[in-house]
Every structure is written in C-alpha cells, then in structure tokens.
Amino acid sequence: MTPRFIGIQRPGGYADHLLIPHPRYLIDATGVDPAWAATLSCSGLTTYAAVSKLRPIPPDEWVAVMGAGGLGLMAIEMLKASGHQRIVSVDVDAAKLDAARAAGAAAAVDGRDPQAAAALKQVSGGTIYGAIDLVGAASTATLGLGALRKGGRLILVGLFGGEIPLSLVSLIQRAVTIQGSYVGTVAELKEVVGLARAGKLKRIPIEKRPLSEVSRTLEQLKAGSVIGRVVAQI
User: What is the rounded CA–CA span in Å between residue 175 and residue 99?
Assistant: First the structure.
C-alpha cells in the first residue's frame, strides 16, 4: 500500500479540518485531554511501537533512550508503562536530561561527553540490552550500537540522517539486531490510548500555542529548545 501520511506524502498537516477516509481510523479518546491525545497519536504511537520491538525486556537489563525531547520523554513513559525501570537517557542538553530524570529515567548521560560510552558502561555495569535512537544521527547510532551486549537490539527511529560503518563480522559474532521503526499501526494506537485512559501514562510537558506561532515553534524545534511537545490550537 502506498503511504499517504498527512503532511508528508499528502498536504494538509496544518489544516483545521480533516476528512477521515474510513471509520476504522477513529479512536475513542474520551476522558483524555485533547492536547494530550494529539501527542499520543504521534510521539506516543511512535515510541510505543519502538519499545514493542524490544520486548520482552528482562527487568534487570538497561535500555538507553537516545534523545530526551518529546519523543524521548514519551519513550520513558512507554518503558515505565511496560514495567521497566532501568532506563538511561542520553542527550546533549542539560535541561532535557533534567526533564528525563523527572520523567523517571534512572540515569542520564551527556552525549557530548567524549567519555559518553564509558559513562553508559558505568551506568549499566557493562553493556545494555537495547537502545532506542530517537535522534537517528551517526553519533547516536554509533554510541547505542557500541553499548549493546551480545544479542542486544538497536531500534532506529529518528530521521536526522547519516551513515555508520558496520563490521559484518562483529554484527554476526555479537548477534545484535538493528531495526528501523516508523510510527505504528492503528491497533497500536488503540493500545496507547487505552494506556492513557487507564492512567498508566504520565502526561509529558505540553505547551499549547495558536496556529499563528507554527513557524516560531518549528524554529525552536530545529534549535532543540523545546522540552516536551507543542500543540497548535485552532
């Protein structure tokens, strides 16, 4: 099936009305604040699908979340909702790392630190079970991949771009998995909304702004100065 994402393959990302092609895409979010529900259908679904690709996660193993923006904070919530606590957040912004700790990350690592790999090793006591890369840059993918234990998994989500060198022999001997994850399914979104309605997800920081401030918001997102999510209101 040809993708038809609004705002990507099709125009209409900032439309004030949207025609739904089929009732199966309608999900009952009664009881969930509309701004919170809007983020669940984007960053919520994206991170839920990514975390699902790591399951089952042994409770005594560590998972690294690369990036502590809106996606990173949501990924922490998804891991916590699945019962996992050993979460280490990696980012280059001190304020975002503070937000990650407040959200429930058990540890935080400055990705700019030349000793970031050693810091991850110290936190985990060796290697990590999995890494969810919500940045998708060569530096974050390399850091996450290098920290994996034998049989570990790197889930690539972010679309920053770049390339990393891969040793085929090392991939085979370490038995690691590198897997992409792009948004998610309608069924998964229903599960995400169900978690929110049941109170199993804590709301991440959300700022509401008028649609007229979209350009300013996009510039702030590009600069990495937004903590959590911004929701445009009509």
Answer: 34
